[in-house]
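Q: I'm writing up a methods section and want to include an example of the input and output format. Could you take the sequence below and give the corresponding predicted structure tokens, formatted cleanly so I can copy it straight into the document?
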Amino acid sequence: MALPAAPHAGHDPAGDNIVRRRTAALRAGRSAAVGAVALLVMTGCLAPAGGARVRSAEASGDGTLKIGLILDNTGSQGFLNTSQLAAARLAVSEINAAGGHKGKPVELLPEIISEDTAGQAKELAAAKADVVIGPTDSSRAPAAIDVLSNAKVALISPANAASGLSTYRSGGYYFRTSAADVAQAAVLVKLAKDGGAKTLAIVYEEGGYGKDVSAAVGAAAKAAGLGPVAVAGFTPGQAQQAAAAAKAAAPDAVVLVARNGAQGAIAELNNAGLGGRKLILSDGAVNEYGSGLGSGALDGARGILPGVFPSAHFQGELVSVDPDLLDMTFAAETYDAVNLAVIAAAAAEDDAGTSIAARLIGVSGGAAQAAGETAVCTSYQTCIDLLRAGKRPDYDGQSGVINFDSNGDVTSANYMVFRYGADNQATRSGSETARSSGR
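A: Here is the clean output for your methods example:
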């Protein structure tokens, strides 16, 4: 059975559901091409955590807070641009209705859609953007970071998930309101334990995503006290040997970490007697498989997708901005990125990118240098009210708790849990949160 429609999904004539759209976004947007990130990390573009994120900054803004967008989705992924643009417009509209920044309207710079990320970043820097939201694709993040960090412009991506970006050299100007791929490991292990598993096998697709996430799952399994963990890798279309290795370990549960090779791996695992309830799918492996797999191959299997299901109210607000909006993917993360940036500017009493970067950890609820009472707020207006009362705001938004660490990563990652039926279709069945201690 397909997923139930969202309250505003009627605007989508194709009837697309959250599984199909979210997995398309994951493959083509969040970290579909992490090779560039991995290469840059290997060639020395690593940096210690912190930088502008943890240093105090002197006011240097021009008095007008300007926000830019890097929209890098073309072709069939264009729907990701519209959801992020609607969310940014909604946030800016609400902020300006509440008085803007220091009594002046916050400006949302005109959007440009292009795969030339460096070019977009240069144009935004020339337009004197103080903070930029984007890009979507992890492989394009380094180009944006290089330009904007040099220009001392804060950058917050609502979608990047490549693990290597946590330590990419940004001078402390880079943040993301989406979790790194490896954050899902604790949730995958929890699902296994909740299902009664005491032993685990991990079958992963070769490549940066598969290796990083499978290693994190192994570490999480050990920390959770699971018994012997068997690990086997495969290349797309060649999963038979990995399935046989997993079968030989006789595990109680199997975690499949895959993207393009997921369907073939599921078929091989099912042939080995490790399908159905034994199977737990990483975010890259979750899809609506239907008749593409044998009947019942996924019956009882569980999987996860990052993020939260948008509330009916939030969906309604987004549709009021763009009546033709078909999808809400990354809308919550974009909305929160804009709010956090402006709250940080308010806390600093300055609109410069350096000041925003220095305050983002604190206003997100992460560790901060500033002393004083902290209180949770869920909107720009309530956060500003806290600042006026002499308190430090801890913004928890549409995407949930954020709490940036010194790498600019969220320390609380939300996931939607799905369960498959005999027809190999997924139904949303709950949610889970993974938390790290941050640093």
